[in-house]
Amino acid sequence: MKIFDSHLHIIDPKFPLYENNGFLPKAFTVEQYKRRVSGLNIQSGAVVSGSFQQFDQSYLINALDLLGDGFIGVTQLPVDITDEEIINLNRRGVRAVRFNIRRGGSESVTELSYFADRVYELVKWHVELYADHQALASLKSKLRKLPAVSIDHLGLDKSGIPLLKEFVGQGVKVKATGFGRVDFDALVLVSELYKINPEALMFGTDLPSTRAPLPFADQHLFDLRACLGEKATEQICWSNARRFYGFVS
């Protein structure tokens, strides 16, 4: 089974890193990522900027160059970035802008609607949100108006499951990632969300699982396959994300 890893981080100390709430991550280079997933059939994926990378683009462009065709970038941008800079990032393989509401390091959420409309109109990017239930609830009216949006790590909180189901029913995409970050049975929720909207979910390893109580294990993927069956797993692990990130198949 081919896999699109919709959420991975590359941490290369050769490029700028910024301490976040007293945390500075260990290195996790492209070569380390490749070794870690060598037993999985990952052929494509999304490199996601973390809070500890803020607005640095140099690490991301380098990572995409090393990973090659099939991998795209999800970055964090300052509000004063020019259209030309966004277009250039698009040429280099970036396909989304991230708002890290939970950890910081990204632009303020007050710029969410403006940025979402701007990048979608300019280069057809979507917006990705790392946010818990409280933040998502406060943004409910805004999210309904966004042209394209995805939510990280199954929304994180058990209390947010009803709202997440509502979003999925309205076409919002959700990353089936960070199983070791959530306070509920991830497989049960994934199964329920798939029934609501089979095209909504996108699997990702979340490697190297920085600050996660339980890091990603290959068994998470095997459990997903056993729980949902071949057809649903293929959608969640490949075709849903490939379409959302602009690939043909």
Task: Write up this protein.
Strand 2, helix 2 and strand 3 (71-75) form a beta-alpha-beta unit. The longest helix is centred in the C-terminal third of the chain and has 15 residues, at 230-244. This protein is globular. The chain starts with a strand and ends in a 5-residue tail after the last helix. 38% of the residues lie in helices and 16% in strands. Strands 1-2-3-4-5-6-7-8 form an eight-stranded parallel beta sheet. The chain has 249 residues and is α/β, with parallel strands linked by helices. It has a single domain (3-244), classed as TIM Barrel.
Summarize the structure.
This protein has 249 residues and is an alpha/beta fold. It has 10 helices and 8 strands. The longest helix has 15 residues, at 230-244.
Could you give the topology of this structure?
Layout: E1 3-8, H1 30-36, E2 42-48, H2 58-67, E3 71-75, H3 83-91, E4 94-100, H4 112-123, E5 126-130, H5 133-138, H6 140-143, E6 149-151, H7 161-169, E7 173-176, H8 186-196, E8 201-203, H9 218-228, H10 230-244
Parallel strand pairs: 1-2, 2-3, 3-4, 4-5, 5-6, 6-7, 7-8
Helix pairs in contact: 7-8, 9-10
The major pleated sheet works out as:
8 strands, parallel
Order of helices and strands: EHEHEHEHEHHEHEHEHH
Q: In percent, how helical is the residue content?
A: 25-40%
Low-confidence stretches: none
What is the count of structural domains?
1
CATH architecture: Alpha-Beta Barrel
Strand order of the largest sheet: 1-2-3-4-5-6-7-8
Name the CATH superfamily assignment. Metal-dependent hydrolases
The total count of strands amounts to 8
Distance between the amino and carboxyl termini: 14 Å
CATH topology: TIM Barrel
Radius of gyration: 17 Å
Give the strand content. Answer: 15-25%
